[in-house]
Design goal:
Order of helices and strands: HHEEHHHHHHHHHHHHHHEHEEEEHHH
CATH architecture of the largest domain: Up-down Bundle
Shape: globular
Helix content: 55-70%
Number of strands: 7
Strand order of the largest sheet: 3-7-6-5-4
CATH topology of the largest domain: Na+/H+ antiporter like fold
Distance between the termini: 56 Å
CATH class of the largest domain: Mainly Alpha
Number of domains: 3
Strand content: 5-15%
Structural class: alpha+beta
Length: 555
């Protein structure tokens, strides 16, 4: 046990060092997303390259695990699984739930389109180019067709999070469709496993048991979504009695872990349960605070997930099927890009939005490996076809991040219809100040006042620095507009909260006015400031050296 833990600690440390160095190299020098660097780092230090080189008495740092479809140790794979749960929990927290629900119908069309087209093309290309496969119902063709259907929520979520596009119409459609894709992929997997079992035993397909597995997976997903959204506000309201945001964040992530485990029991991927937990909490007033707490810890685990994904790549196993793997990967790309992009055109997105959705659905990842791993373990596919699945995942992981970033760069919204804003009951209070320092003082004092009233502060991306102050269903927005011409503080709220908000601002301005008056009664403010500076340089005897004061003032 001690030796196993020793190796895990060393592996964890090497992964953190490698992913951070390579990840930052990709961001700063190559202008590529960090996730791509983390994947490449995993490939370099993994068991198929540098990780296999013995180092003294330690032996290989990342030894190849014989007889397993996963080439790393179970404990390291477990740590990476925790990283994927952190990632999807944070992604759920950052998703705008009303927009997610609004676009869920459109996402279903996009998701089903991608699954159907990808499955048909994957199955077809396997039959046409693989001489060992003679039928569209051959288990190998069915497994590779299923491999094409899954989308990596993890990679897509990381890119959308880094580019601040998680809550855009395209972003929520991609996330909702990706979740649906993985649910459908698991259902398809149960059907294919049933057919593969039939091929091996010569028996008849047990459609009843396959239907039960599919119904259980879909039912669990739907029930958890509804219950999570309904119960999340009541949960956070009761937890706030403990007056500890750290406790709320910890318990919330604990629920995400439990839900992830239950998802696995129901036949779904763990990441789906984690995403549901985050999405359910996303509209609570503590969502931002929970996200900030978990993000600090997640920064140590999430890179391990992507590094282990990179370690899955077995370069030698792919040599014999390199040509087929390359063609298969291109077909898989086309199936997702057009299978998801074209339906998007019919549900309200323009060409730009359709391209963004198609690019966002390209990544393959954890569910792809799950499907391929089960196929390999059941004997339905050989190691070379498993290598094809891994290469498809690898090429998609390398190609999709730059494509997705480029698709979102510049241009207007990809949604052709104007979103309705419920702003009839919204009012704004605008205050002009003589300087940005005055605004900062008032803003921080306003924050303190609202926090004492039980509000939680969260930042919002926008043209101007903006913050939301939330307490249960009440949202107050505060933004600053600072330039050479103006220094303006804007507070927006619902009309029913106007009186309370105005009272809070009046109290804040009264404090500010008292502070200004205390300065104005001084006959010479400049002398007062100078004296304060001189006092800073007095020694223990009360003496002051003129040279030190001059140097101090210059600094």
């Amino acid at each position: 046990m001690s030796e196993t833990m020793m190796m895990l600690v060393i592996q964890f440390g090497i992964i953190l060092i490698a992913t951070n160095f390579v990840g930052n190299l990709f961001v700063k020098k190559l202008k590529q997303p960090k996730v791509l660097g983390e994947l490449i780092a995993g490939m370099i230090i993994g068991p198929y390259l540098l990780g296999a080189i013995p180092i003294g008495s330690l032996g290989p740092i990342f030894p190849l695990i014989a007889g397993s479809t996963v080439p790393v140790s179970p404990v390291l794979y477990g740590v990476s699984t925790i990283g994927s749960i952190f990632l999807l929990f944070q992604s759920g927290l950052e998703t705008d739930l009303p927009t997610f629900i609004k676009f869920s119908g459109k996402a279903s069309v996009v998701g089903f389109g991608g699954v159907i087209i990808s499955f048909i093309l994957g199955d077809l290309i396997t039959v046409l180019l693989n001489s060992n496969v003679t039928s569209f119902m051959d288990p190998e063709a069915l497994f590779l067709g299923t491999v094409c259907t899954a989308t990596s929520i993890g990679i897509t979520a990381r890119i959308l999070g880094e580019t601040k596009k998680m809550s855009t119409p395209e972003g929520v459609t991609i996330m909702a469709a990706a979740v649906l894709d993985d649910v459908i992929s698991i259902v398809l997997l149960s059907v294919v496993v049933g057919i593969a079992t039939l091929e091996g035993t010569g028996g008849s397909i047990e459609w009843g048991s396959i239907g039960i597995v599919a119904a259980k997976a879909i039912g669990f997903w739907a029930i958890c979504m509804v219950l999570g959204i309904v119960l999340a506000p009541h949960f956070t309201k009761s937890m706030k009695r403990f007056e500890s945001i750290g406790m709320i964040a910890t318990v919330s992530f604990g629920i995400a872990l439990v839900l992830a485990g239950l998802s696995e029991m129901a036949g779904l991927a763990m990441i789906i349960g984690a995403y549901i937990a985050g999405l359910s909490l996303s509209q609570t007033d503590v969502a931002y605070a929970i996200g900030q707490k978990t993000k600090r810890v997640g920064e140590y685990f999430i890179p391990v997930f992507f590094a282990v994904m990179g370690m899955m790549v077995n370069f030698s196993a792919m040599k014999s099927v390199l040509g087929f793997a390359f063609i298969f990967a291109i077909v898989a790309f086309a199936g997702k890009f057009f299978g998801c992009g074209i339906p998007a055109l019919f549900v309200g997105f323009n060409k730009r939005g359709a391209a963004r959705i198609g690019a966002g659905m390209l990544p393959r990842g954890e569910v792809t490996l799950i499907v391929a791993g089960i196929g390999l373990a059941s004997g339905a596919i050989e190691a070379d076809m498993f290598g094809v699945a891994v290469m498809t995942m690898l090429l998609a992981s390398i190609a999709s991040p730059p494509l997705l970033i480029k698709a979102f760069k510049g241009g207007d919204s990809g949604y052709s219809k104007k979103l309705k804003m419920d702003d009839e009951d919204i009012m704004s209070i605008e205050l002009d100040f003589p300087s940005k320092y005055a605004i900062e003082f008032v803003k921080e004092t306003v924050f303190d006042g609202f926090i004492q009233e039980g509000y939680f502060v969260s930042t919002v991306d926008g043209n101007y620095p903006t913050w939301n102050l939330r307490k249960e269903n009440t949202i107050i927005s505060l933004s600053t507009e600072i330039s050479d011409e103006k220094n303006k503080l804007v507070v927006s709220c619902n009309k029913k909260d106007e009186q309370f908000v105005r009272l809070m601002i009046v109290e804040t301005l009264a404090d500010f006015n008292s502070f200004a008056d205390s300065l104005s009664i001084m006959q010479s403010p400049d002398m007062m400031c100078s004296q304060l500076i001189i006092d800073m340089f007095k020694n223990s005897k009360g003496e002051t050296k003129k040279k030190e004061v001059i140097v101090g003032i210059k600094e």
